[in-house]
């Protein structure tokens, strides 16, 4: 894509990534893609805010050349040091060796650790300003969103907040980079939620602190490092992030995430009966096969839904391994205080329930009910399973 004007003399110079399979080497983006949003301010002093990962360099530098000579860049403002933000740093410094790098005190240390860079580094603190000539930028420290050095950059002239990873999301740009020109905003909001839970959720208190800190700053445009630029309704993405952050400690949505696994179909049969019981009560349910769905897609439902229904057989006197993987990631992401229930089959010995209880103990989930059956389910088992699902749905529904 060519450079895109956001405001006079302010440009998006990012790239689409439809090549990478795993974001951070972990989260699938094969179908969705992602953007690396970098920004150029063409003032008396020329500044780039955030770079990008070390690929598509020719495309990236060609965008800069549309606006100014790359060698004339005065400042690189480093909101975040993660390599998807800083990967082209060495290359740019070779082209413009006198460029000044601007970042937090912790950024200075990380520049040395990652790139052995010690010279031409300017440290800024909370509220500090940098004049570019016709406009002055201001910096706000937002540590642990989601690394300790992270900050945001604010342009009061055009009321643009360059928000780094906060307010970002997965999803390559499909022609329209601005929210008000986007015809499929639902896709980007869904991918923003998945990105939030995958990347940011552990730092939800920091999200709320940052939103409170910036509450009195007038913002017309939110320009994150990934995903859409929000200019038509910039408060929309802030409101969504606030809601998702509050889910860490407050009441979530009245729905059930049903995660199941089945070796030979026995648990699968019962799963369908359990789902019927939940739906009969009128509670929304999302269903995921733990063995065939990457946990990246399951986590958003676990984060937002009030109830968790777990269905898995015993495997070698333990919990079905794909289910254990999902639950262990829920522990890592601190998805706490859910209502939960468990069902599953076993053969000569149980063990799945015992291991599941041990895994979820740190999450303080309220395990309200369990239903285990031996071998293949009987007709009576299937009837019991539907009632089991309905009882659980009623408990979830009562929380409203």
Quickly describe the structure.
By secondary structure, the chain is of the alpha/beta class.
Keywords for this entry:
alpha/beta, 400 residues, 2 domains, 25% strand, seven-stranded mixed sheet, five-stranded mixed sheet, Rossmann fold, Metallo-beta-lactamase, Chain A, 34% helix
- Regarding quaternary structure, what we see is single chain
Q: Given this structure, which CATH class of the largest domain is correct?
A: Alpha Beta
Distance between the termini: 47 Å
Question: How does the helix and strand content classify structurally?
Answer: alpha/beta
- Ranges where pLDDT stays below 50 over 5 or more residues in a row are none
What overall form do the CA principal axes indicate?
elongated
Written account of the structure:
The protein has helices spanning 57-67, 83-86, 89-95, 105-115, 185-200, 204-213, 234-246, 266-280, 295-304, 321-332, 352-360, 379-398; strands spanning 4-7, 10-12, 15-17, 22-23, 27-28, 34-36, 39-42, 46-49, 75-77, 100-103, 121-123, 129-131, 136-141, 151-155, 160-164, 221-224, 253-260, 285-289, 305-311, 314-315, 318-319, 339-346, 366-374. Strands 1-2-7-8-9-10-11 form a 7-stranded mixed beta sheet. Strands 12-13-14-15-16 form a 5-stranded mixed beta sheet, with no helix packed on it. A 5-stranded parallel beta sheet has the order 18-17-19-22-23, with helices on both faces. With 400 residues, it is α/β, with parallel strands linked by helices. The longest helix is centred in the C-terminal third of the chain and has 20 residues, at 379-398. It is elongated, with a radius of gyration of 24 Å. It starts with a strand and ends with a helix. It has 12 helices and 23 strands. The model has no long low-confidence stretch (mean pLDDT 96). It has 2 domains: 4-246, 4-Layer Sandwich (Metallo-beta-lactamase, Chain A); 253-398, Rossmann fold, CATH 3.40.50.360.
């Amino acid at each position: 894509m060519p450079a895109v004007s956001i405001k006079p003399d302010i440009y998006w110079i990012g790239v689409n990534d439809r090549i990478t399979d795993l974001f951070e080497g972990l989260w699938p983006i094969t179908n969705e893609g992602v953007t690396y949003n970098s920004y150029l301010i063409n003032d008396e002093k020329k500044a780039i805010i955030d770079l990008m990962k070390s690929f598509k360099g020719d495309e990236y530098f060609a965008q800069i050349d549309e606006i100014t000579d790359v060698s004339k860049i005065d400042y690189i403002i480093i909101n975040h040091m993660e390599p998807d933000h800083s990967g082209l740093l060495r290359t740019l410094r070779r082209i413009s060796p006198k460029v000044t790098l601007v970042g937090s005190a912790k950024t200075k240390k990380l520049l040395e650790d990652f790139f052995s860079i010690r010279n031409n580094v300017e440290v800024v603190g909370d509220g500090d300003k940098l004049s570019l000539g016709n406009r002055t930028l201001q910096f706000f420290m937002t540590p642990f969103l989601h690394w300790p050095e992270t900050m945001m950059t604010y342009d009061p002239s055009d009321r643009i907040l360059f928000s780094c990873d906060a307010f970002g999301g997965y999803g390559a740009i499909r022609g329209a980079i601005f929210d008000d020109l986007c015809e499929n905003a639902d896709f980007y909001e869904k991918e923003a939620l998945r990105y939030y839970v995958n990347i940011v959720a552990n730092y939800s208190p920091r999200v709320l602190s940052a939103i409170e800190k910036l509450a009195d700053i007038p913002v017309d445009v939110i320009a994150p490092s990934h995903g859409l630029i929000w200019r038509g309704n910039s408060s929309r993405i802030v409101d969504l992030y606030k809601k998702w952050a509050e889910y860490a400690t407050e009441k979530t949505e009245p729905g059930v995430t049903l995660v199941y696994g089945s070796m030979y179909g026995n648990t699968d049969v019962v799963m369908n009966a359990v789902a019927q019981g939940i739906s009969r009560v009128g509670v929304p349910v999302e269903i995921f096969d733990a063995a065939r769905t990457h946990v990246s897609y399951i986590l958003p439902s676990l984060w937002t839904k009030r109830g968790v229904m777990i269905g898995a057989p015993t495997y070698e006197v333990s919990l079905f391994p794909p289910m254990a993987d999902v639950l262990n990631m829920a522990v890592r992401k601190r998805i706490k205080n859910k209502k939960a229930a468990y069902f599953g089959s076993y053969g000569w010995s149980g063990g799945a329930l015992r291991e599941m209880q041990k895994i979820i103990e740190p999450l303080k989930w309220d395990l309200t009910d369990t239903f285990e059956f031996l071998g293949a389910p009987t007709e009576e088992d299937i009837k019991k399973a539907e009632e089991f699902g309905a009882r659980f749905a009623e408990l979830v529904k009562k929380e409203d």
